[in-house]
Amino acid sequence: MRSLLAALLFLFSCPGRCTYLESDQNTSIPEGWIDAGRVAASDQVQLTFALKQRNVRELRELLGRVSDPDSPQYGKHLSLEQLSSMVQPSELTQKVVRRWLQSHGVQDCQSVETQDFLQCAMPARVAEKLLPGCEFSRYVNGHQSLVRSPVPYGLPDEMSEHLDFVGGVHRFPDSKVALRRTWANGKKRKAEFHLGVSPSILRQRYNLTASDVGSSQNNSQAVAQFLEQFFHPADLAEFMKLFGRGFKNLPEVERVVGKQGGGKAGLEASLDVEYIMSTGANISTWVFTNPGRHESQEPFLQWLLLLSNMSAVPWVHTISYGDDEDSLSQAYMQRINVEFMKAGVRGVTLLFASGDSGAGCMKASKGGNTFRPSFPASSPYVTTVGGTSFKNPFQVTYEVTDYISGGGFSNVFEMPDYQVNAVNSYLKGMKALPPKTYFNTSGRAYPDVAALSDNYWVVTNRIPIPFVSGTSASTPVFGGILSLINDHRFLKGLPSLGFLNPRLYKLQGSASSALFDVTEGCHLSCLDEQVQGQGFCAAPSWDPVTGWGTPNYPDLLTALGD
């Protein structure tokens, strides 16, 4: 129904011959956002034009070679300049897009090093002429204010050959945050009786000693924030004073890319920074943040533009961002995948949280329910991190699944070659699978790995807070451990790990002990008669709840350190 309405609006609003690049993009307004009315014609908006790139197939093939440990090109990553020469749009595309913009009086545009994005400021009335059909309004959610169009945009036919999508029109920032289990779902729950996960607990469980800290001058790691949150440097210092006494650490972030906002620190931001700097201890850490952005910018897209414009970026990035796959256009997701490939061929490791909704749930088009995958967790070009809990809440024991751990199968992306054997083994060997009408057995399966995601201690606004949970905790933990492995590689003169998945799946396919296998527990899904709230379950080797398992640092270092 939504796509039919979009098509009708488009036909009536797009003069001449037009193309709709994102016909499958959800343009509805998320819960919590209030329509504050149309923007004034003179109000400035900022749009991001994703220009079509050259050599995308060659880029994908190159990523496969530099990420495959059996390839003679393994680890031979590109510089930003080399990458730019490979993918930058043709001269024709650049000229056509710029002339089209200039013909509407749009002059205030910024590009990136790879020349494949243009970010342009213009009055709303000009933007609505450029993109027939769209109608910009202002939306408010608490202290946040955004400019978006609830109506689809069109493009002249001749421009569709040169653009993948236009950003700053539809998508709202992700609103998922770290969970406080004691108040989950708006109800106070009995706290699970655990003293709480802290750096010392993580280092004990994953076999990190006091000497397992960074020492390479060339190493760096990063977290990225898209929730208009920020961290307090004083919180980090207090956290390390309370919980970081047993190992050498850095009490300060090396660099903040973006503008730190004012007011209270965010729980999510504090969690990310404190824990990547606990497992990836004594390693230079950056924070990418977005407060102070323009109302029409897309925070996640802004981060990707920064990666395309910085010659030196941290080697490991952990991101706790996700949207429902079905809420995003395929054109947008496919282009974002190319951005992930660009990072991979430069030797950057991207880790994304798998989400906190288990297998998810949505109504199927033919009635009934189906599972609901998340993106970018479902991207074949990132490493996705699920979540676990201790079996015994009182002790540092083996791990079982955390019932919230996101996982499943993409409805958009095909299963990549590197994971076919592992996933098919799970599908053939698992006796109790959900009905096949609930998931796409040929889709990209995730997560790839996992770490503890339950009952963390976090210091925010100078107050220690217990019972913080979610895969936004497990992701920076795993990221910090990969940064330690990069540290050893750099000291040996070896390149960074880069895109990890091809090597990871080959490694674990040979029955490696580099990861602790998680074999107990299931995650949540649809509350209906067929699956009764249960999604997938853990199993020996890979599974779509915890991937290959959680890190056993000494063995993982041995496996990946050379």
Structure description:
The structure is a single chain. This protein is α+β, with helices and mostly antiparallel strands. Helices cover 28% and strands 22% of the residues. Strands 11, 12, 13, 14, 16, 20, 21 and 24 form an 8-stranded mixed sheet that branches. It has a 4-stranded antiparallel sheet with strand order 4-5-3-9. Strands 2-6-7 form a 3-stranded antiparallel sheet, with no helix packed on it. Strand 20 (383-390) and strand 21 (399-401) form a beta hairpin. Helix 2 packs across helix 10 (330-345), helix 7 (233-243) packs across helix 8 and helix 8 runs parallel beside helix 12 (471-491). The longest helix is centred in the C-terminal third of the chain and has 21 residues, at 471-491. The protein is globular.
Question: What's the short version?
Answer:
By secondary structure, this protein is an alpha+beta fold.
- Count every helix, treating DSSP H or I runs of 4 or more residues as helices: 14
End-to-end Cα distance, whole Å, is 54 Å
Rg over alpha carbons = 23 Å
What ranges have pLDDT less than 50 throughout 5 or more consecutive residues?
1-13, 180-194
Give the percentage of residues in beta strands: 15-25%
Principal-axis shape equals globular
Biggest beta sheet attributes: 8 strands, mixed
Output the structural class.
alpha+beta
Approximate helicity band: 25-40%
